[in-house]
């Protein structure tokens, strides 16, 4: 019911932004486990390390990185509510379903694993550009692992 993600721009500092979003259980029931990725916005602009596929097209970079977990329970994350950002229905975030990310990484195939950090494994994936649907974007998708949750605990 929670997703954590970070967005990174190729060629810049790896650790740039990490935020938590809460997803209501009814959304899950409707297969709406979603990951929100900042698109072009004022707030995104103010953080130069956040990458969007619009920006990617402008900069020539086609790489961004996401972190997602499908296994985190409400119980285990309930105490981290203070980290969540309000859902902003009118924002310009791009939303991915968990299913899309799963497909992009061929069910988080080990063959597509490109690295592992303290919070989980990173996979190479391919998603469609919203601006040009026929265009594919290479992305790095990070899946938050249980080890990652253990890392979060002492910080809070
Ligand atoms: N956008 C990316 N493009 C290519 N490889 C990446 C990308 N993001 C991560 N990786 C690979 O995955 C590895 C782990 O990345 P990750 O971001 O998880 O590292 P970390 O910052 O040490 O982890 P954490 O933030 O979880 O502590 C990297 O060392 C790199 O090899």
UniProtKB/TrEMBL annotation:
One of its GO terms (molecular function) is ATP binding. Residues 39-51 have a biased composition (Low complexity). ATP binds at residue 142. Gene3D superfamilies: Phosphorylase Kinase, domain 1 (3.30.200.20). Keywords: ATP-binding, Nucleotide-binding. PROSITE patterns: PROTEIN_KINASE_ATP. Transmembrane segments: none annotated. Residues 33-62 are annotated as: Disordered. This is Protein kinase domain-containing protein. It comes from Aegilops tauschii subsp. strangulata (Goatgrass).
């Amino acid at each position: 019911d929670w997703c954590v993600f970070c967005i990174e721009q190729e060629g810049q500092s790896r650790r740039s932004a990490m935020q938590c979003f809460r997803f209501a259980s009814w959304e899950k029931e409707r297969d709406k486990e979603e990951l929100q990725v900042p698109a072009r916005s004022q707030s995104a602009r103010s953080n130069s390390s956040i990458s969007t596929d619009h920006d990617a097209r402008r900069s020539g970079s086609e790489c961004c990185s996401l972190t997602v977990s499908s296994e985190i329970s409400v119980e285990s994350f309930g105490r981290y509510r203070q980290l969540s950002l309000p859902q902003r229905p009118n924002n310009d975030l791009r939303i991915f379903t968990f299913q899309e990310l799963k497909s992009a990484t061929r069910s988080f195939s080990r063959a597509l694993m490109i690295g592992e950090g303290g919070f989980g494994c990173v996979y190479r994936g391919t998603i469609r550009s919203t601006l040009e649907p026929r265009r594919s974007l290479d992305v790095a998708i990070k899946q938050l692992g249980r080890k990652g949750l253990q890392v979060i605990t002492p910080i809070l």
